[in-house]
Amino acid sequence: MKIYGDMISGNCLKVxxxxxLLGIPYEWVEADVLKGDSRTPDYLAxxxxxxxxxIELDDGRTLAQSNAIIRYLARGSRLLPDDAFxxxxxxxWLFWEQxxxxxxxxxxxxxxxxxxxxxxxLDGWRVERGNAALDLMExxxxxxxxxxxxxxxxxxxxxxxxxxFAHEGGFSLEGRANVKxxxxxxxxxxxxx
Amino acid sequence: MKIYGDMISGNCLKVxxxxxLLGIPYEWVEADVLKGDSRTPDYLAxxxxxxxxxIELDDGRTLAQSNAIIRYLARGSRLLPDDAFxxxxxxxWLFWEQxxxxxxxxxxxxxxxxxxxxxxxLDGWRVERGNAALDLMExxxxxxxxxxxxxxxxxxxxxxxxxxFAHEGGFSLEGRANVKxxxxxxxxxxxxx
Lengths: 193, 193
Description:
2 copies of one chain form a homodimer. Chain A is 51% helix and 7% strand. Chain A is of the alpha+beta class and 193 residues long. The first copy, chain A, has 2 domains: 2-74, 3-Layer(aba) Sandwich (Glutaredoxin); 84-190, Glutathione S-transferase Yfyf (Class Pi), Chain A, domain 2, CATH 1.20.1050. A 4-stranded mixed β-sheet of chain A has the order 2-1-3-4, covered by helices on one side. In chain A, strand 3 and strand 4 (62-64) form a beta hairpin. Chain A is globular.
């Protein structure tokens, strides 16, 4: 399997973390989004959505969308519960991440760190919703080690992806002790020091 | 099972369509988003994300996020392939819908139809990305009846939800013959005349 990804992208790191944790062998193909590597004709032929990450199986079949990929890779593993409802509660976080977290936390980081926009010129509504997302996580983690009741799962991997870099988008985990401790727990689980 | 939903919301209609197609009995609890029904303390206690739709099982357990819900309801049915990779290709569309389609097509509709913003005052970047999303669907449906190779699935239901109302956000399906014919096919499948 090949993973096409950009190491600056949290979405791509989700796939790397999942494959590494499950011991799935892969070749990492670095695709530099800032240089347009995901918009070349060759890339678009494999993934018309023009986004990273993407995986390419040994038989040539391709799959895009970070959370669809990790869900596929983790099937039958400890990272995705067997029980249908428990798996659905993981899915609930995966979809929430893409709609209510990534567009704010990740996009503010991208605008500041990679496009050079000063913190005070970031979109106010994105900052506001990013803070609301972190607050929701803080509440969800009250008295809990992980986001779902199924231990460390894909839900934690998907939310860790950009939460760990929230400060790079101008967000702060100070005053969000639950999130901060959870980031550390996730890092320990994944083996990031 | 109770479905908490707002009939003006495509996200909620996904759940209705799926339950109806599979013959799953439910009680529809209308939650008027414009009146704040999804932000009351009672609602937030059940769904801290404060969004519709949500389902509540007979034992009181709740699940939010439209695509997580339909995925849960459709497990083991003809709407979600058994094969893991084929199911992942459905997931690919579900996640793409929430990140690259809904925030443009549905939000423009909401701003125009429900908040009263004139078409020419809609966010230009949302209009641009909405059109790009419809163009991608047009290409994906070239020579194909459905979005994936597994027949009519949750991918079609999820994308139908707001594509069928695209005109209400100022988008046009004229010149997008594949999408237009596919909307008609979806409606026939669901029994919408």
